């Protein structure tokens, strides 16, 4: 990159850290974990879109388009739009529960509705999945940096992780909401306002795409019909157990705010999938060799964007990476803080200051764990898909917990364990489709065990949740 581009990136990142420090100096534990439930429609919408289309999703979509065409992006875009809109419809129920029980996590729901054991199983699942998501984000940015610099991959991971962990541990989710608005605007300007038109205006415009095989424009190329339809259907299910969405719903000012923000977000995520896929297709059509498929979008930016705009584009991706990593680490932090420290380790409710300190320490632990995982994560697309759908083992217990009075604590715990065991047992053979037997096992177990077990005295059944 030119000195102008480097300067833009440095100024942008310095500005983000300044915002984080400013916010962190004045926040409470509730601000750090849940923005004290004061997020308006725009803050929630910007945060949902920025978190959803992180580096892992964008880089993975471009890589899949380069290798196999539009299928992965089409599945992702339709699934994301449908899923987030569905979450908007379900949001008032989550918000009502969160306000009544002062909830911060999905684990809080399992603890109130079911039992401490069910809460622990759900929390362990969420912590593991989101730590992997954070590792994917670290991996994605490190690949971005290797395109423009000579920095070694491992050094790039460690360097970006240190800064991001420090930022997140100090600023928490409060600054994430505010900086997400900036990232959203910049990403729209760079990806949709500049990169796509520049790709179209270069040498042959988009005419090169006609040279691609017909399979590149079929919806079933990536994973076949089962993945396409299953990805969309199960993608809707994922949002009901995606804790970053629960956090943003909890943080909303009202139930109406949460619903409107999520429905608007359903429209906002689609263009990013399209821009990323287009970059991968154009590179493939032009015969540009890519030793590392996950750098497809970054190579397109490097070859298409003029000086200055390139720096803004890199800055936007760095900012989006920080935002998405912040989100993933805050999910793990909240889970470790509320579902393990406060519920298991603490003998009494911690003071405000101590709770804030514990939350920050847990954030550092989450970041370090993600860094260690990132050295073992090399396949962004497949690992992201598997991790995302692993959350589905929680779905029967969540939906049953809200709507089915017969659902029991024993069934919830058994369901999560059966789903996890089945998914991991079939992952080596089925790959990204391993979630299917996992969801089936979780669902069948949940229904069967609910019919043969009774409620515990501590359970709060669906009709008593007040949602």
Describe this structure as you would to a colleague.
The relative contact order is 0.19. With 467 residues, the chain is mostly helical. The chain has one domain: Sodium/glucose cotransporter. Helix 3 crosses helix 8, helix 6 (106-113) runs antiparallel to helix 7 (116-148) and helix 18 (409-430) runs antiparallel to helix 19 (435-452). It is globular. The chain is 77% helix and 0% strand. The protein has 19 helices and no strands.
Question: Tell me, what is the CATH class?
Answer: Mainly Alpha
Tally of DSSP helical segments: 19
- Write down the Rg: 22 Å
CATH-defined topology: Sodium/glucose cotransporter
Shape: globular
In the CATH hierarchy, the architecture is Up-down Bundle
For the record, the count of structural domains works out to 1
Tell me about the largest β-sheet. Answer: none
| Strand segment tally | 0
Give the rounded overall mean pLDDT. Answer: 85
Distance between the termini: 53 Å
């Amino acid at each position: 990159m030119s000195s102008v581009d480097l300067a833009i990136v440095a100024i942008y990142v310095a500005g983000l850290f300044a915002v984080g420090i400013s916010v962190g100096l004045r926040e409470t534990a509730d601000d750090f974990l849940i923005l004290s439930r004061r997020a308006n429609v725009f803050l929630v919408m910007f945060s949902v879109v920025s978190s959803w289309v992180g580096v892992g999703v964008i880089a993975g979509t471009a890589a899949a388009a380069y290798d196999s065409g539009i299928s992965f992006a089409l599945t992702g875009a339709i699934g994301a739009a449908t899923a987030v809109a569905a979450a908007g419809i379900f949001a008032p129920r989550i918000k009502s529960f969160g306000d009544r029980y002062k909830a911060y996590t999905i684990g809080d729901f399992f603890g109130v509705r079911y039992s401490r054991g069910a809460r622990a199983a759900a929390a362990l699942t969420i912590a593991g999945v989101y730590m992997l998501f954070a590792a994917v984000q670290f991996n994605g940015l490190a690949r971005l940096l290797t395109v423009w610099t000579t920095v070694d991959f491992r050094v790039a991971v460690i360097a970006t992780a240190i800064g991001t962990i420090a930022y997140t541990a100090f600023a928490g989710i409060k600054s994430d909401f505010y900086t997400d608005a900036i990232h959203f605007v910049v990403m729209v300007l760079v990806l949709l306002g500049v990169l796509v038109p520049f790709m179209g205006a270069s040498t042959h415009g988009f005419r090169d795409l006609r040279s691609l095989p017909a399979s590149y424009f079929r919806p079933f190329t990536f994973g076949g019909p089962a993945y396409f339809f299953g990805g969309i259907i199960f993608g809707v299910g994922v949002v009901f157990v995606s804790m970053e969405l629960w956090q943003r719903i909890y943080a909303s000012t009202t139930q109406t705010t949460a619903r409107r923000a999520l429905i608007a977000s359903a429209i906002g995520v689609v263009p990013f999938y399209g821009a990323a896929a287009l970059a991968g297709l154009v590179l493939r059509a032009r015969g540009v060799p890519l030793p590392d498929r996950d750098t497809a979008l970054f190579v397109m930016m490097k070859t298409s964007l003029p000086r200055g705009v390139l720096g803004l584009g890199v800055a936007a991706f760095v900012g989006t990476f920080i935002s998405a990593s912040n989100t993933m680490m805050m999910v793990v932090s909240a889970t470790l803080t509320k579902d393990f420290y406060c519920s298991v380790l603490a003998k009494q409710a911690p003071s405000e200051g101590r709770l804030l300190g514990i939350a920050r320490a847990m954030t550092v632990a989450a970041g370090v764990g993600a860094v260690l995982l990132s050295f073992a994560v090399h396949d962004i697309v497949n690992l992201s898909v598997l991790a995302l759908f692993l959350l589905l083992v929680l779905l029967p217990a969540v939906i049953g917990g809200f709507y089915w009075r017969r659902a029991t604590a024993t069934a919830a715990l058994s369901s999560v364990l059966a789903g996890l065991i089945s998914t991991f047992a079939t992952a080596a053979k089925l790959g990204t489709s391993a979630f299917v037997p996992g969801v089936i096992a979780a669902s069948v177990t949940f229904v069967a065990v609910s019919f043969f077990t009774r409620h515990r005295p501590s359970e709060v059944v669906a009709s008593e949740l007040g949602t």
